[in-house]
Write a structure and sequence with these properties.
The chain is α+β, with helices and mostly antiparallel strands and about 260 residues long. The protein folds into two domains: about 5-160, Rossmann fold (3-Layer(aba) Sandwich), CATH 3.40.50; about 170-260, Beta Barrel (Elongation Factor Tu (Ef-tu), domain 3), CATH 2.40.30.90. The chain is built from five helices and 15 strands. Helix 1 (about 20-30) packs parallel to helix 4 (about 130-145). The longest helix has 14 residues, at about 130-145. The protein is elongated, with a radius of gyration of 20 Å.
C-alpha cells in the first residue's frame, strides 16, 4: 500500500504576506493528509544561490522519497522551465534556474521532466507571477500522493538542468582555491571547501588581505575576532566570536577564499 510522502517548502516569500499559507491551502485541497514541512521562507528575495545552499544542506535530513518544492524564482512568467526531478532518494519540484544544483551535485538523477501536463496544475491558465501556487505546489502535492514523475510532463535530459555559475573549489595540494557560497543569519561565511579536504592537516584561511587561523569553536577567537572552523554542514566556514564575520570582513557570496594547508 502506498504511503503518503512528506512534502517540504522552501521559498523567499517570508511570513508577512499570505503566500506560504496559500501554498499549503492548495496542497491541502489536493490531499489534506500530506505532511508539509517548512525548510525556510526567509531566503532573501530572489537569492537563488542562498536557496541552493539551504536546500542542499537540508536535503539529507529528510526521509527517503520526500518531495521538495523550492521556489525562488526571479524568472517567473518567462520561458524558463518548470521541472520535476526524481532522484534515487527523493524528488525536486520548482523552476529550472540553478536552485537545485547543490542537491544535483550529490544525488543521482533517475528522471527529469518539464512540467507541461496542465491537469496536475491548479488550473490550466496559471498566473504569470505565482507559479508556486498554480504549478509547483499542486505538482508537489500530486507527487506526494503517488503520481509518477513521467506523467507530469515531457522528459528532458538531466544534463540540461541548470547550475549556478559558482566557481568550484580546487585542491592544489598545499593550498585550496575556493569561494564563499553562503552567509547565514549569524554572519558566518560558508565556503565551498569540503571538510574532508583538510582532515588530518594543519590549515588556515586567507580571505582578501586577512589571515584567519583555524579553530574548533567560535570561542577559540577573542570577542569580535574571526576564526575558521569545520561547520556542522560539512563545509569549512569563517565565523566571528559574538559578531558577524560577514560584517567584520565586509565580504559576501562569491568572494575568493584560499586555504593554506601543511
Amino acid at each position: 500500500m502506498f504511503s503518503r510522502r512528506y512534502l517540504t517548502l522552501l521559498t523567499d516569500f517570508g511570513l508577512r504576506d499570505g503566500y506560504v499559507g496559500i501554498l499549503k491551502g492548495v496542497i491541502a485541497t489536493i490531499d489534506a493528509t500530506v505532511a508539509t514541512i517548512d525548510i525556510t521562507h526567509n531566503i532573501s528575495p530572489q537569492d537563488v544561490a542562498a536557496a541552493r545552499f539551504c536546500l542542499a544542506n537540508a536535503y539529507p535530513y529528510f526521509p527517503e522519497d520526500t518531495v521538495h518544492v523550492a521556489v525562488v524564482d526571479p524568472g517567473v512568467g518567462t520561458p524558463r522551465r518548470g521541472i520535476a526531478v526524481q532522484l534515487e532518494d527523493g524528488f525536486l519540484v520548482g523552476p529550472d534556474n540553478g536552485i537545485f544544483g547543490g542537491v544535483l551535485d550529490r544525488h543521482r538523477v533517475v528522471m527529469a521532466v518539464e512540467l507541461t501536463e496542465a491537469k496536475y496544475w491548479r488550473n490550466p491558465q496559471p498566473s504569470r507571477t505565482f507559479h508556486a501556487r498554480d504549478i509547483f505546489a499542486p505538482v508537489g502535492a500530486h507527487l506526494a500522493t503517488g503520481v509518477r514523475v513521467d506523467r507530469l510532463g515531457k522528459l528532458i535530459d538531466p544534463e540540461s538542468l541548470l547550475r549556478l555559475p559558482l566557481p568550484e573549489a580546487e585542491d592544489k595540494g598545499t593550498s585550496i582555491e575556493a569561494c564563499v557560497q553562503y552567509c547565514d543569519r549569524f554572519g558566518n561565511l560558508i565556503t565551498n571547501v569540503p571538510v574532508a579536504w583538510v582532515e588530518g592537516k594543519s590549515w588556515y584561511v586567507e580571505i582578501e588581505t586577512t589571515k584567519i587561523p583555524s579553530g574548533i569553536t567560535y570561542s577559540d577567537a577573542k570577542p569580535n575576532e574571526t576564526v575558521a572552523l569545520v561547520g556542522s554542514h560539512g563545509w569549512l566556514e569563517i565565523g566571528a566570536n559574538r559578531t558577524s564575520a560577514c560584517e567584520q570582513l565586509g565580504v559576501g557570496v562569491g568572494t575568493p577564499v584560499r586555504v593554506v594547508c601543511s
